[in-house]
User: What shape does this take?
Amino acid sequence: MIQFRSVDFGFAGQPLLTDFNLDIVAGRTTALIGSSGSGKSTLLRLMLGLIWPDAGEICFEKTPLSADRLVDIRHRTGYLTQGGGLFPHLTAADNVALMARRLDWNPSKIEARLATLAQMTQLEPALLTRMPSQLSGGQRQRVALMRALMLDPDWLLLDEPFSALDPLIRHQLQDELKTLIGSLNKTVVLVTHDLAEAAWLADHLVLISQGEIIQQGTFAEFRQQPASPFVEQFLAATRALPG
Amino acid sequence: MIRWIAIGLMIAGFFGAASAAEGPRPVVVGSKNFTESVLLGELTTQLLIAQGIAAEHRRALGGSRILWNALARGDIDIYPEYSGTLRFELLADGSDSNGTDKPLQSLLAEVGVAALPPFGFANNYALGMVEQRAQALGITDTSHLLERGNLKIGVSNEFLHRADGWPGLKAAYQLPHAATGLDHDLAYRGLVAGSLDVIDLYTTDAEIDYYGLRVLVDDRGYFPDYQAMLLHRVEWGERRPEVLAVLTQLSGQIEATDISRLNRLHKIDRQSVEQVASDFLETRLKQSPGANKGSSSLASGLLTTTYQQLFLVGVSMLAALLLALPLGVLAAKKPVMGRFILGLAGAIQTVPSLALLVFMIPLLGIGTLPAIVALFFYSLLPILRNTEAGLSGISRELQEAAVALGLSASARLWQIELPLASRTILAGIKTAAVINIGTATLGALIGAGGYGQPILAGIRLDNTGLILQGAIPAVLMAFAVQGLLSWLETRLPAA
Assistant: This one.
């Protein structure tokens, strides 16, 4: 369980989160949804200690995040961003294996893990020797996902993982990710502005607007009992296909 | 790992080379940056070598003051000086511009310097005119100029300001003229071309004979005597009496006509300094030096200057890298300190390179060390700035990806940030290296050798070929270094 307890956070003098509270339940997929600038990505960056709250605390397994726990928490967390964040000077395999090598995994264990992950993310293993610039956008995100999963993390944080991809590839990856999540039984936090993606992948949805939680629950609950006109608007903004 | 071993070997090599040069120290002979002084320095050096005493000639180091200070500091052991310059310029305390009645030797002894018995000629100041013009105007004596207030007088810049130069002369003869200051060699050309009527001469100048000039009689006895003699530190002379014994062989051996002829052989007939000096030693002193003769060949000269230039550039660049890279990292990580560091390095860069070299003299004397230090300071900013810019320019997404992986700060620096910044850093190194190679040619001004040496000699002798012997290799070296670093750049990750 990851908990935000009375978190305040501001940027450049503007408060973004005020007395923010949220429990992220272990073992299921939680989607943080909302329009851009609502503070969703900020929540992920707070969890990783990339930024620190002005007040309040973020607890992992009931213990507040602190400087001395950071490295451990980061090793137990997989993080995937919209652009993938692959290092352009390392091959795909080196990107994926970077942290494991720093942790002195033996080479055969690394090889085995790479093979498993390539199969899991459906990446052709031959592509692992390429530089990121020699891969397509979809292939890059698969490699970035492999990197996020390399140390078999307890928590997987996905920040708009597919929004930079073309619709066909995005759709395919969403399908694969759903299968993957289902088989891994991890705590996943997905940040997206795409309600359909959230509904498809997540067990639990959290709608955030201007740093405040408007409603949380399953997609069915959202549909049946929208908490406010804003939720109705948000649901309606996902256009149904004509015909 | 191999990279570190290589760097270690390079450092060891530099120190090895430096300590090997210590050994039994050869006699270091200096000379000023004009033909006659260089010839006297070369004669002295070759005589010592012929007598089996190790000696080296650091030629054309600069003006009187630079040589005098270099002698006092022990950068050089011996150099030729003139009695008038000593009495009125170097030993003048300012209170009394005409010096004292004390003998020169006791004035020198007060500052721990001694002079060997003079060579046997005086190189005095005098005024000179083109023969026909002087004849037409009926001028033979300096005082005749009084009635010719419309004559154009041009004098060398040093003469124009020296106490024993133009101000004193103008007062002694009550001359109404206003003199123009210009380069001594150019003054001759101006005189012959007719744009000047009267110039100052050094009485042993080869040009007097060559252009058939009339030397005006100093009929009021204004100009002092400028006897040429070798100077050394008293304590040094006590340690090396055998050197002094050899050098007294030159005393009284060179007459005014001799030195004029030697000046002419070098400056007008374009014989090398080494050749002129060794020929004179052979015919006059029956010495066969030979040893120094060979160094005049183009190939070996080029080899020596190339080695010197590479040493200046290599050591200063290596030192600059060792300081600027860590400082650049610090500047990127601590922006407040970074602004201070970059500001300071920027301030150093605004000091003109020539001034920076000259500033080093009072601190470090002359020669290779001060030149390396100046070049080191000059190379800092481009490396520093590009290291900082390269690191700060890494996208936030990549920086955060590295942090989020749980990499330690040092792992992030070495495995992610420095590789990603490497192209930008290399571009800075390239800029620094090219500036360094160009600036290193100025090192010859303070006796550091390198490609600047033939360039300076070429300017002194009005010899374009000699200038090109320094300029072309310097340009080629800059191209080569740039090419090498550009090739290296293609092997680095794209930013």
In short: The radius of gyration of chain B is 27 Å.
